[in-house]
Amino acid sequence: MENPYKRKKDPEASKQLILNTAAEIGATADWHQVTFQAIADKTGLSKGGIIHHFRNKEELLEELVLQSLVELTEWIDEEKRTSGNDIAPIAFLRFVIKKSDDLHYRRTMKVILQAALINEHYKKMWDNWFTQHIAGGSLADLDTNTLIIMLVADGLWYADNLGVYNITTQKKQQILNKLLSL
After folding, report:
1. Distances (CA, A) of 119 to 31, 40, 58
2. Are 133 and 76 in contact (CB under 8 A)?
3. Which residues of 24-35 are buried (b: 16+ CB within 10 A; e: fewer)?
4. pLDDT: is 177 or 142 the higher one?
5. pLDDT at 2
């Protein structure tokens, strides 16, 4: 007979809970405040259980950034499909505007931004992802119009993630419409 008091283990669910909680703490505070103890307090998992999945905070951040970039790729690909426009910088700008009020998106992007700011390794990961998925190759070879769209998307992305300017979704849509009319 199975012990009714023994907790059933679901390692993937626990790992995802740890990642989600780390992202939540990191997005609302500062990545330096993400500790195994803070995650344990918020999830009810033991520190040992967290260490079972991630040997250290760096390994946790690496997994979180990789997962975030995969998710971002899926979001951008979906935006290209649904908008009918497969030009990646325009899809990225549309995506930034559409997702700017989505808390999960903002949390994901803030973690990527913080990681890139605190560690050159993550900055390179972001640059590689951006070059591959948005720029479509060398940034030096971009035409001026594409570069303008990318810089506007980046500006809105940074403003959202840093919590500055408080640009409304309606104003962002007007910016997009103006760019598309040029």
Report:
1. 12, 25, 10
2. yes
3. bbbbeeebeebe
4. 177
5. 53
